TrEMBL record:
Protein name (database record): DUF420 domain-containing protein
Database matches in Pfam families: DUF420
InterPro entries named among the record's database cross-references: DUF420 (IPR007352)
Alphabetical UniProt keywords: Membrane, Transmembrane, Transmembrane helix
Superkingdom as given in the UniProt entry: Bacteria
Residues spanning the membrane: 40-65, 77-94, 130-150, 171-191
Amino acid sequence: MDSRCAAASIPGISIGPPTRKWGRLYNPHMLTHGFLGYDASFMLDFVVTALAAIVPILLYSLYAVKVQRRYLLHRNLQIILGITLLVAVTAFEVDMQFIHGGWRNIVNKNPESPRLTGAEFEHVSRVLRVHLIFAITTPLLWGTTLILALREFARTPVPGKHSQLHKTLGWLSVIDIVGTSVTGLWFYYVAFVA
Ligand code: HEM
């Protein structure tokens, strides 16, 4: 008896063609059209969701450090946010540049009947340029703030000599990431929703 038959004979386990349930969860259409229902792409929808989720977590982290003085919680939340940002941006860039060959191919999937042309396309390009100012500076500023904080504060962080510089870098990073998030959602809206 081959292993397929052996597994198939175990009660409760069935091996065979994908069931309809899995067919609905894994759907190749989702990779090219996304899951938010606006015909973008999976990675674009993923990054937009991540950007929207980052802001409330960031606000909570600031509340934890400023009001509750829970420095360790603040440190851990900032590390998690940093890793999320890095993974989302890397995966997004790989998908956008190497899989789709640039954002124009996602917006205008069908060259026969492009979704955006002329003045509309120009407007979306301008929104994207504004977004890129924030999106490119954020990882650099965020990385600098994070690495310096990890190097200069103690393992169990408390205010100290690095506080002043950290607060300046920290608030600039906060403004930058909120700018990235807001302009990213704005781009998504004008390119796919409006
Ligand atoms: C990119 C990541 C980070 C950002 C954006 C950030 C942001 C901030 C901001 C805006 C403040 C000032 C709050 C206030 O005005 O009172 C702050 C305070 C603080 N952060 Fe961060 N932080 C980050 C990472 C870290 C890490 C990794 C650590 C620890 C290793 C840390 C430790 C602290 C401490 C100890 C304070 C209190 C400073 C004081 O009140 O003197 N932060 N952070």
